[in-house]
Task: inverse folding
């Protein structure tokens, strides 16, 4: 029997389930189709489990290498990686139950199965009816929605010759399920995910080498952040090969590990490790969901949408990783809310992606909002820059982490803030102040006039704002 809905959402990840909650709040009869578990990649294979592991790695490294600095005698410190994984799973399970409860609270129908978009049929003259292949093997369900949101997310991408086998060659999905740590890990890709894994594994005691095709790690971040991250991670013992092209056809699997060659500085160099982690971006999940039954267009594998997240089929929307852009959980959530509000009332809620905060949860952490100094100059801005180190902040010294800095890039002509970039302790928690400043079009002077409590790490933001005009107090 066909079920009618105001909205059916394909995918119950962060973007999908948040969209469902907002739709329920607005009184729309809503269903979510999810082939796996509610929460999607972020909750089960990305944001949450990786950050749980990063936290365990941080605690282990602190206890092993830095406890004595605080006058704490620990004796021999050892790692119970099985318990680390159990804690990670406990966090995931708790949050998963929370998402399930939210669906029940909002009276959102959840279909456990794989959904496909049908073309015009006896159910509707327009494409958009959803056929759900139920996970439990029961007969397909037919859902007839007035509107559809595609939120099918993404999966790890790989490179030719580096096929993921789950044993010696891993994506982040398989790495999260490791039962024991390898002695060494070769990480292909020095972007956000690669650097987080490099930091985590290093803190767990794994020997790590990162190979990055660009001439620096974190190539989309401000160059000063990239340089500082490289310096601090090298200090911890992580090795880097930048400007290196991995030659997939040279991959060799051996009893004790793998080896691969890369073109580097005009030469070919061989790299060896027990395992390899391939971290070279993500690709959209657009296969077998029925796009061929519609006029929906794709470009470079991603669904094309308008500013209101409508596809070429105006009643079918798409959000999150499947449309490319900033593939971040918090972005997907806001795109979902914006799409639902447009469905409900026609309200346009455009997102300024340059005002979205971005975070890297390595040790040290990094975060940013806005454009880099180089991007600002390329766009013709006459910039002024303020930079202030954590080493001059009392709370950072008390905390025992004084590496890093905050950098503010502003337009010399208008005093508008163009970008704020941070590296150091807890900057992923501090970036929201910078994000709010960007949304409110604040100037460095206005940030500086905000009295930051002492002693706190956030004082570094106020000092960096003063430094833009050469007025920093403690430097």
Result:
């Amino acid at each position: 029997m066909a079920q009618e809905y105001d909205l059916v959402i394909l995918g119950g990840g962060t973007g999908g389930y948040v969209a469902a909650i907002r739709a329920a709040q607005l009184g729309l009869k809503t269903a979510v189709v999810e082939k796996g578990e509610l929460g999607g990649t972020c909750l089960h294979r990305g944001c949450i489990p990786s950050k749980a592991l990063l936290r365990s790695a941080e605690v282990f490294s602190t206890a092993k290498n830095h406890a004595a600095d605080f006058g704490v005698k620990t004796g021999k410190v050892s790692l119970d990686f099985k318990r680390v994984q159990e804690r990670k799973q406990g966090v995931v399970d708790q949050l998963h139950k929370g998402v399930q409860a939210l669906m029940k609270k909002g009276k959102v129908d959840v279909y456990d199965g794989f959904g496909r978009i049908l073309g015009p049929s006896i159910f509707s003259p327009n494409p958009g009816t959803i056929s759900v292949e139920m996970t439990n093997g029961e007969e397909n369900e037919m859902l007839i929605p007035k509107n559809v949101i595609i939120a099918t997310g993404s999966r790890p991408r790989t490179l030719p010759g580096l096929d993921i086998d789950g044993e010696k060659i891993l994506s982040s999905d398989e790495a999260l399920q490791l039962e024991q740590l390898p002695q060494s890990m070769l990480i292909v890709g020095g972007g956000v995910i690669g650097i987080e894994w490099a930091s985590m594994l290093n803190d767990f005691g794994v020997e790590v080498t990162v190979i990055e095709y660009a001439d620096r790690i974190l190539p989309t971040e401000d160059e000063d952040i990239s340089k500082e991250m490289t310096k601090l991670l090298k200090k911890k013992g992580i090795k880097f090969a930048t400007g290196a092209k991995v030659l997939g056809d040279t991959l060799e699997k051996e009893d004790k590990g793998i080896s691969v060659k890369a073109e580097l500085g005009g030469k070919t160099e061989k790299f060896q490790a027990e395992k390899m982690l391939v971290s070279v971006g993500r690709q959209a999940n657009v296969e077998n969901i029925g796009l061929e039954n519609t006029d929906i267009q794709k470009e470079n594998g991603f669904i094309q949408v308008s500013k209101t997240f409508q596809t070429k089929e105006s009643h079918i929307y798409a959000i999150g990783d499947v449309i490319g852009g900033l593939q971040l959980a918090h972005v997907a959530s806001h795109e979902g809310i914006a799409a639902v509000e447009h469905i409900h009332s026609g309200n346009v809620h455009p997102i300024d992606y340059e005002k979205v905060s971005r975070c890297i949860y390595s040790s040290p952490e990094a975060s940013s909002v806005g454009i880099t100094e180089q991007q600002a100059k390329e766009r013709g801005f006459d910039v002024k820059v303020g930079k202030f180190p954590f080493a001059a902040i009392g709370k950072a010294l008390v905390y025992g982490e004084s590496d890093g800095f905050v950098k503010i890039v502003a337009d010399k002509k208008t005093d508008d803030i163009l970008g704020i970039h941070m590296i150091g302790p807890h900057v992923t928690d501090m970036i929201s102040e910078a994000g709010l400043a960007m949304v409110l079009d604040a100037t460095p002077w206005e940030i500086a006039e905000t009295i930051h409590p002492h002693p706190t790490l956030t004082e570094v933001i106020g000092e960096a704002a003063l430094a833009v005009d050469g007025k920093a107090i403690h430097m």
